[in-house]
Description:
The chain folds into 2 domains: about 1-150 and about 250-370, FAD/NAD(P)-binding domain (3-Layer(bba) Sandwich); about 150-245, no CATH class. It contains 13 helices and 16 strands. It has helices at about 1-10, 15-20, 40-55, 100-110, 120, 130, 160-170, 200-205, 220-225, 280-300, 310-325, 340-345, 355-365; strands spanning about 25-30, 35-40, 65-70, 75-80, 85-90, 90-95, 140, 145, 150, 155, 175, 205-210, 210-215, 235-240, 250, 270.
Amino acid sequence: xxxxxxxxxxxxxxxxxxxxxxxxxxxxxxxxxxxxxxxxxxxxxxxxxxxxxxxxxxxxxxxxxxxxxxxxxxxxxxxxxxxxxxxxxxxxxxxxxxxxxxxxxxxxxxxxxxxxxxxxxxxxxxxxxxxxxxxxxxxxxxxxxxxxxxxxxxxxxxxxxxxxxxxxxxxxxxxxxxxxxxxxxxxxxxxxxxxxxxxxxxxxxxxxxxxxxxxxxxxxxxxxxxxxxxxxxxxxxxxxxxxxxxxxxxxxxxxxxxxxxxxxxxxxxxxxxxxxxxxxxxxxxxxxxxxxxxxxxxxxxxxxxxxxxxxxxxxxxxxxxxxxxxxxxxxxxxxxxxxxxxxxxxxxxxxxxxxxxxxxxxxxxxxxxxxxxxxx
Length: 376
């Protein structure tokens, strides 16, 4: 969302966000459930981020899988790779997410959908907090089921009609009517992105241009999809089995405090879905940045930073943390992009797209460029 990316800039750090902005396709003024989205190319963003991380001296171990930990009391001493190698450190930030592995997608979903996580290739996700003896919790959905389906799929743009591709290239959005006999309102209850759990998403196929064509639904039978004009040759590319199911998320969320530190451990911090029932890349960037920042402060013996609730980021971190202690709160998802939390933002006067107002608010809190301070 535009407004939160401006907040993140003013608070500082997040050169990473520049990589996202460099690859923005366009600002989409409005589509169903969204007031002002920025769409970026998922095919170009990864190399941009990788090169930035390497340029600042970060040692990337991408084809590596952490399988266990070395612990002493309430402190993690190191993590073991699946090769047996032990990597020691003073502090750790876990952003392993909350999706899968395959057994969970079978138990709580429609089976492995062959999604972008590629569990069969790289092995299942391992929760470091759980390995350290901390009990993770799960998000819930209606019917007392655990987890939620990922809320979108990717179609190969080259398999869509020329008219659809041209409109995606021109406006970023295409809306196509679903035949009345194929409308399924019940499916909205199962998806992660509650800001898009709207009637319009059950009655229409909504495509966004994010490099591929992003299909804004959990899954959709391929034969029904191909009944729609312009999609007669449509092909799923993520997940490959997008006609049958999708990945299941929110199955391993760590209890944490508002400084992003895991409860019961001295030196493990979490961000993204691992830190709460959050939806969206802006939320992942915000929580992950605070987690990394406080991990460094911890190693230096400095007090942790807790962002005040008079900022949208500080408020969503605190509010989401409180809400997961309630039964209904574990069924909600928290995002700046819409649904329950967006209403809260407006009610608490946290929502604005006025850059100067945001800047003044952050300045008054003495937080301007806080993440840009050189700590080491």
